[in-house]
TrEMBL record:
Gene3D superfamilies, alphabetized: Aspartate Aminotransferase, domain 1 (3.90.1150.10), Type I PLP-dependent aspartate aminotransferase-like (Major domain) (3.40.640.10)
High-level lineage: Eukaryota, Metazoa, Chordata, Cephalochordata, Leptocardii
Protein name listed in UniProt: OAT protein
Cofactor dependency: pyridoxal 5'-phosphate
InterPro entries: Aminotrans_3 (IPR005814), Aminotrans_3_PPA_site (IPR049704), PyrdxlP-dep_Trfase (IPR015424), PyrdxlP-dep_Trfase_major (IPR015421), PyrdxlP-dep_Trfase_small (IPR015422)
Species: Branchiostoma lanceolatum
Highest taxon of source: Eukaryota
Amino acid sequence: MDPEAIANGSTATLGQAAQRSLAVFPAGSNGEFNLPKELTTVLSRGKDCYVWDVNGKRYLDFSMGWGTNLVGHAREEVVAAVTEQAANGSNFAYVNEKSLQLAEEIKRLSPAVEYLRFCSSGTEAIMYCERLARAFTGRSKVLKFEGAYHGANEIGVTSLFPKGLLDYPTPDPSSAGIEHSVKDHVLVAPYNDLGMTTKIVEQHKDDLAVVIVEPLHRCTPPMDGFLQGLRELTKKHGVLLIFDEVVTGFRLAYGGAQEYYGVIPDLVGYGKALGGGYPIGVFGGRADIMSIVNEDLLGKDKRYVWTASSLGCNTISASAALAALQIYHRTDTYKHLHHIGRYVRNKMKGCLEKNDIPGHVIGDGPLAQVLFTEKLVYNYREQKLQENAARRRAMMVGLFKRGVFLNPMGTKLYLSLKHTEEVCDQFVEIFNQTLQEIKQNEKSTTTN
Ligand SMILES: Cc1ncc(COP(=O)(O)O)c(C=O)c1O
């Protein structure tokens, strides 16, 4: 790419594929990448922890399909399982051998799951958990934590990026088109603040169906006692607790955040890494709650909950998931994932110190995120108030230009079983160069 064209924001010299992408996708994106237009990219293939664009440029992938490819791109065992199944039919929209086997294994590994059903995405899985909680309790309100993402549905995006810092528990839609359905029904609390959460729960307990939490909130770990406190608080008031394990499931431990933090919710949603790179969603939990999806109740029990998914237990995703689970089940999987995450976080922290740039590297397991804040922060609002957002953006664009592929919003890194120390060293070198560039640019802006 011509540097002058980048500086001018011109798209005239973009490659053909990028031009075609801009002609059919708004912003040349399928909703996944908030890049400057002139960096519009079209990918063609992936292997292990690398992706290539249509021009043959290789990127070091730290998005890994937003964490869906925890096993690595085009992992041989997954490819073999999918290929074998493809010849025997991809979807019957009915319980099949593969989905049954997978369901049995999920029930075995997930402490909360007595019954489960499949769908095709994390969004659907969490949406069903929320619907079940409302139907089971007969209450309408859902409490979520500010800055949490639970999928692209109405509740999922509420207060994801609040425009202002509203008084808790007032929700901010964060997307047009949804305000009417969330403003009276979603309560918002600060993550890691059990005191404030308790106050809100107690005030709304008669209408509150459920508290939903990402146990590891984006990349922010729970403070000691926070998840246990939520469990006790919800139990005390007959409010249900959902763990959104779309990210943490199979990533922090084979039994996900429930096993890792030792807290068991009433309902849980999975997706992402479970599918080994193929579309999947699972919602499950206590038998008494899950039983209200039984179709025999339709028209007979007012608690009956509609769930359905054309592709929800398709044999291809189930085969990919079974292959992925076999890999996760190996003894060294979580040793590697935790080691490599710690390794990259420590090295990145070293770079910040070396360059004298205030910041912190947070995360757990194979997840890392750099925060350009003076102090360590424990929730969205503290981050928002302190963070140097211009540096975050400069970091994302700088890394991308140097061949590091990232997930949106830039600084959350998904590592995989294919990320080695050597790969992380290459990344850290680029991270360091980018920090130097940011410092240099900031200096010349101040001097000018
Ligand atoms: C915590 C969490 N929940 C739910 C979702 C939605 O999953 P999907 O994109 O598969 O619909 C995501 C996606 O990033 C997520 O991070």
